[in-house]
Design brief:
Layout lengths: L3 E6 L4 H11 L7 E7 L2 H9 L3 E4 L5 H9 L3 E4 L6 H18 L4 E5 L18 E3 L3 H5 L8 H13 L3 E7 L1 E3 L5 H4 L9 H12 L3 E2 L6 E6 H17 L11 E4 L2 E4 H14 L9 E2 L2 H8 L11 E3 L1 H5 L8 H20 L1
Parallel strand pairs: 1-2, 1-4, 2-3, 4-5, 5-7, 6-14, 7-11, 8-10, 9-13
Antiparallel strand pairs: 10-12
Bound molecules: NADP nicotinamide-adenine-dinucleotide phosphate (NAP).
């Protein structure tokens, strides 16, 4: 039997590394042939040691992306949810594959619940809770919303029929990544959002939030997120009729909801214990601090993004980690961030 060729981008990242680790331990792993995009020769060499072929390059190497996508049966794109030229290059390769074989290849693309965010600036948590089953509401989201540029192109390609696309759409992903790719020093261990806030709190020596810290975001753990990727990967190959795709192919990844204040409150406790903050009290970042630490990004970082992964659960996703684990995940993140600052 010929092997299933999988091209994965972002495999050295916090999410993509966990997805690749799971797939390397998949019961059918022997029949998979992995090729990962790697930006550094050093990381490529490390990936080779665990049986993953690599192509050296980045999302700027469009011809390479097209060629790699064309050679694959399945593309798992986890490097950048916003890079339209790269997404188009991958789709071009998949279209060429379809034209050659007559069979639509699979695309598992990573989006994010920032697509449904508002402009709360931390002042309230009063925003629509979007269900991933509500394809009409998702389709009506403005083209200017984050990630929509790539999502729209991906859904269009699915509609044209040359690719079957699934859009995994996480809220904040939390928890330090673990697994063989972390152990060999190839995978980012940390997420993006929480460490950013923690770094700012450590720098101002007082836990901080934006506005009134009342904005709410959906969240899911790194391992639950990787589980959903694997579930979609399995069903897309074995039982595609069980899965919505394209405009009906958004799978929200959430199993907790948190406010900006809650993150600051927990961060404050740890910073005070470490003697970095005088007290555990969290305060709102001043206008100067917002500008200094977050630049123009502060409004984006203080939105609401309220999601229900009804479609994800309907296809069998059973997330384990919830609000308790989210709050518990902040302490080790603070310790790691502080350690990295002290280095
Ligand atoms: N983490 C979250 O909470 C979250 C939530 C929703 C959506 N997302 C989205 O999911 C994607 C992955 O997130 P993540 O947390 O795993 O990020 P990450 O840890 O920063 O990983 C990004 C991965 O993509 C690679 N990469 C970045 N830019 C690239 C480029 N221009 N060309 C080729 N490879 C590139 C990185 O390679 P190197 O090892 O060379 O850096 C790394 O493998 C992002 O697009 C993010 O917006 C993340």
């Amino acid at each position: 039997m010929s092997s299933t060729k999988i091209f994965i981008t972002g495999a050295t990242g916090y999410i993509g590394g966990s997805v690749l680790s799971r797939l390397l331990a998949h019961p059918e792993a022997k029949s998979f042939e992995f090729t990962a995009l790697a930006r550094s020769a050093e990381k490529a060499a490390k990936l080779n040691t665990v049986g993953v072929k690599t192509v050296l390059g980045s999302y700027s190497d469009l011809d390479l992306l097209t060629k790699s996508a064309k050679e694959a049966d399945i593309v798992i794109a986890v490097a950048d949810s916003d890079n339209l030229p790269a997404a188009e290059a991958i789709l071009k390769g998949q279209k060429e594959k379809f034209e050659e074989t007559g069979k639509a290849p699979i695309l598992i693309h990573t989006s994010g619940t920032a697509i449904i965010s508002d402009d709360a600036r931390g002042q309230h948590g009063d925003h629509t809770i979007y269900s991933d089953l509500d394809s009409d509401a998702i389709e009506a989201l403005p083209e200017t919303a984050l990630h929509r540029n790539v999502d729209i192109a991906t859904v269009k390609a699915d509609k044209e029929g040359y690719v079957t696309a699934y859009l995994i759409t996480p809220g904040t992903v939390f928890g330090l990544a673990e697994g063989p790719l972390v152990d060999i020093g190839v995978q980012h261990k940390y997420s993006i959002q929480l460490p950013l806030f923690i770094k700012v709190s450590a720098a101002r020596k007082k836990a901080g939030y934006i506005g009134a810290g009342k904005n709410l975001w959906a969240a899911a753990s790194n391992r639950d997120t990787a589980d959903l990727f694997v579930l979609i990967f399995n069903a897309a190959r074995k039982n595609p009729s069980s899965l919505g795709h394209g405009r009906d192919g958004f799978y929200f990844v959430e199993n907790a909801e948190y406010s900006g204040f809650e993150v600051a409150e927990e961060t404050g406790k740890v910073l005070a214990e470490l003697g970095i903050a005088e007290s555990p009290e969290a305060t709102s970042n001043t206008a100067e601090e917002l500008k200094q630490f977050f630049g123009d990004w502060w409004t984006l970082l203080s939105t609401n993004s309220r999601a229900k992964g009804d479609r994800s659960r309907a296809v069998g996703w059973k997330p384990v980690d919830g609000k308790k684990e989210f709050i518990q995940s902040i302490r080790p993140e603070v310790l790691e961030v502080v350690k990295s600052i002290e280095k």
